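User: Hey, quick favor. My workstation is busy. Could you predict this chain's structure for me?
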Amino acid sequence: MSTAVQSPAAPSLAALSRAVDELCALPNDQMGASRKKHLRALQGAFERALTRHGLVPDAYDDLASLLSPESVDEFLRLAVRGLIRGDGKTEPESDAQIRARIRAMEIVAEHTRTPFVRPEMPPAPAPAPVVPPVTRALLLEHFKGQVARSISEPFRVRFLAMYGIVLDTAASSGTLAGQHVAHLARDLSTVRIQRPRQGRMATPPPIEEWELSPATRDALNAYLPLREQLTKRFQRDREHEQNAVTHLWVSLEHNNRRLPDGTVVQEPPGMPLQARGVQRVFLRAAEALNEEMEDLLAKRNAPQAGAEVPEWSPMPTRLEPLRRAVEDELRQREEAQGGVQQVIVLRGRTA
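Assistant: No problem, here it is.
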């Protein structure tokens, strides 16, 4: 059953409803959940705009009229004033929300082959500063030293392995969440990754195989026995193999998860980490490093302090600035070597 709003009387809104239904019926590998959410939001916003404010006179007629420059301009003026929100609020819609509205219109127009002149997009925010090499190296050495001395709790063991994968491949939180143990070579020399689909890509990105650094292999050798211990309770015999946890990155503690009906269930340790869980891992690691570095710098008697790390600055608590810094360096290395890719791209294989 469709989750769309009731088909309105206006022919233009009925046509929009049909198009959104068709797009939202596509599998997630062709149209992502976030895009579908934006399409449904656009459908509701256009219905509110037309029924409450009228837009332009011929916007009732058909989809082409609804998506005409005059109709879209009036729609966006209402959105900027906060008059067609679906959450009951009256605040003006943000630049990010406006950009999402326009991208959703483009998808509908392309799907229905309706003429569409894209209005000017609000400016995208400037990217956050990337993490400088000194700070990245300090984070690596700080956690690596603790793991090597066997004084680190499981959180630091898992983080160090995850951090090594990011430094070697510039993997995002979504990429990390999609990794399985089978993506690692038996000798841990390489890892296969598949980056998330971007925008309206017709096909998934190719699977990439990256060589892992010695530091990352050491970190994985420390983490994998911990992971095996955490997931042991989920391993089944062959006939229940589908119940086994095969994801590479798993939780260390009990977590609460809310079901669609609102029920909250407690999941045991060893469950696969989702993208948000991966992001929380990096937030927690950055907070730990920042707190410990402030303490060391205050004491002025630790090897990490003073003139040896004059460029140190607090570590960002988000993964994205770190990932972009690594991505930039990998691209520069590729360009310096005459465009020779550092990654082996494996086509025709599945994750």
